[in-house]
């Protein structure tokens, strides 16, 4: 029986990746770096979970000798931290004021779940600051009150595709995986949720639509036509309408 909805954040609650890319590029300019992530480059970089991890990975591609030079480790780590701090400030500016609206159907599903007394949770590997920047306008400054559990980058040691953050969410909810439904937009997110045993519905973005989603309960363009009743039927194994099926 479906008892909880667990949402990823970036790309799932809102289509944020374009704003993240703009924030990274602004941070690079501030730091005096001649780096620029195109949409195609960022699409590939999204295969690496975590902003700092993404910066470090790109550094190794752009300047492998410098990143791997003897004694460079501490300098690389400090520089990555500084760039990421700049990026976070730029993202907060871009996300504040409701500029990044929630994806279709998200707010309605959260409200329907509340009315039906289903738990709603967040399982993401983004930072608490990024979550607050995104949600404080569309959901209000007390947005945390809408969620039974908020598990983020500070909750789990390993990031997606590791299932750690989903295990943390299940523990916080006090529910078995089979009683939950996860919502993701990426292959790494799907792998993480499925490794925790949670049935998963995927709504890709322009950055992730080319990824493989084997094992997903369903793949949809968005949740605009989906209500809680349909989710309950699908979670229980009922057949899905043909026009909602995706290859």
What do these coordinates show?
This protein is an alpha/beta fold and 247 residues long. The chain has two domains: 4-15 and 101-244, Rossmann fold, CATH 3.40.50; 17-97, Orthogonal Bundle (DNA polymerase, domain 1). Helices cover 43% and strands 9% of the residues. Strands 3-2-1-4-5-6 form a six-stranded parallel β-sheet. Mean pLDDT is 91; it is low at 242-247.
The CATH architecture of the largest domain is 3-Layer(aba) Sandwich
Mean pLDDT: 91
Question: Can you say what the CATH homologous superfamily of the largest domain is?
Answer: HAD superfamily/HAD-like
Number of helices: 10
> Can you write the helix and strand succession as a string?
EHHHHHHEHEHEHEEH
The shape is: globular
| Gyration radius from CA atoms, angstroms | 18 Å
Helix content: 40-55%
Model regions low in confidence, pLDDT < 50 over at least 5 residues: 242-247
Number of domains: 2
CATH class designation of the largest domain: Alpha Beta
The total beta strand count reads 6
First-last Cα distance: 27 Å
* CATH fold-level label of the largest domain: Rossmann fold
Summarize this structure briefly.
This protein has 247 residues and is of the alpha/beta class.
Keywords:
247 residues; alpha/beta; Rossmann fold; DNA polymerase, domain 1; 2 domains; six-stranded parallel β-sheet; 10 helices; 43% helix; globular; disordered C terminus
